[in-house]
Amino acid sequence: MSDILHRQTLSAIGRRLYRKGFVAGTDGNLSCRLDSDKILITASGTALGFLAEGDFVVLNPAGEILTGRKAPSSEYLMHLAVYRARHDVMACCHAHPPFATARATAGKGLPSGILPEIVAFVGDIPLADYAPPGTEAVPKSVAGYLADHQAFLLRSHGVLTIGRNMEEAYNRMEAVEHYAKIIYIADHSGGAIPLEEEEIQRLREIGRSLKSGQLTDDKENNS
Ligand SMILES: [Zn+2]
């Protein structure tokens, strides 16, 4: 995919995030890997719902600007840390969706083993310790979770999701927010009851099969 197509994809995902109310003003940032040495990321101070062609920066893995006239997103260190840690990850999505972010501000995290599709397709969603946005503390706060997770609550801040492409990273953001909303309602309806452990293990196995690219009948039945 050419650089211009990647910019168009990030712009389209930015519009979806804005329309869904997952970002306000200049919140949030998006990135994708162009190749092993180039990361395309939204520029600092840009509104994700209204990205223009010049609102992007190309960085090398050291964080140096290769192309672009603006500064990269203030969270570029978090994005670069993800790409360093996970060679399978091709895109990162960071936003502040209200239900999931509210959960992160309450320091509660999201429970495991409640909804089958979250167990299989997103996995456990850890709550990273608070780190001031835009600092080196942000990548440090998620470092311990990166190897085994696809979505992260950032305490008192927002949500980070990652994926094999921008669409997958975005879909995980939408899934996390929808899940946080369901948990909020369940908390006011007597509380969500976890699935049986055996079923959780079966769903995790489906998730692992999907990761290795083997679609099973189970997945198709569950989707
Ligand atoms: Zn943020």
Main β sheet profile: 8 strands, mixed
Q: Write down the Rg.
A: 17 Å
Order of helices and strands: HEEEEHEHHEHEEHHH
Helices and strands: which structural class?
alpha+beta
Helix content: 40-55%
Ranges where pLDDT stays below 50 over 5 or more residues in a row are: 215-223
Q: Based on CA inertia axes, which overall geometry fits?
A: globular
* Average pLDDT level: 93
CATH superfamily: Class II aldolase/adducin N-terminal domain
Identify the CATH architecture.
3-Layer(aba) Sandwich
Would you write up a description of this structure?
The protein has 223 residues and is α+β, with helices and mostly antiparallel strands. The chain has one domain: 3-Layer(aba) Sandwich (L-fuculose-1-phosphate Aldolase), CATH 3.40.225. Helix content is 41%, strand content 16%. It has an eight-stranded mixed sheet with strand order 4-3-2-1-5-8-7-6, sandwiched between helices. Strand 6 (127-128), helix 5 (137-143) and strand 7 form a beta-alpha-beta unit. The longest helix has 22 residues, at 166-187. The radius of gyration is 17 Å and the shape is globular. The chain starts with a helix and ends with a helix. 38% of the residues are buried. Zinc ion is lined by residues 27, 94, 96, 133, 157-158.
What's the helix and strand layout?
Blueprint: H1 3-19, E1 29-35, E2 38-42, E3 56-59, E4 65-67, H2 76-85, E5 91-95, H3 98-105, H4 116-121, E6 127-128, H5 137-143, E7 151-154, E8 158-163, H6 166-187, H7 197-211, H8 217-222
Parallel strand pairs: 6-7
Antiparallel strand pairs: 1-2, 1-5, 2-3, 3-4, 5-8, 7-8
Helix pairs in contact: 2-5, 3-6
This protein binds zinc ion.
Residues 27, 94, 96, 133, 157-158 line the site of zinc ion.
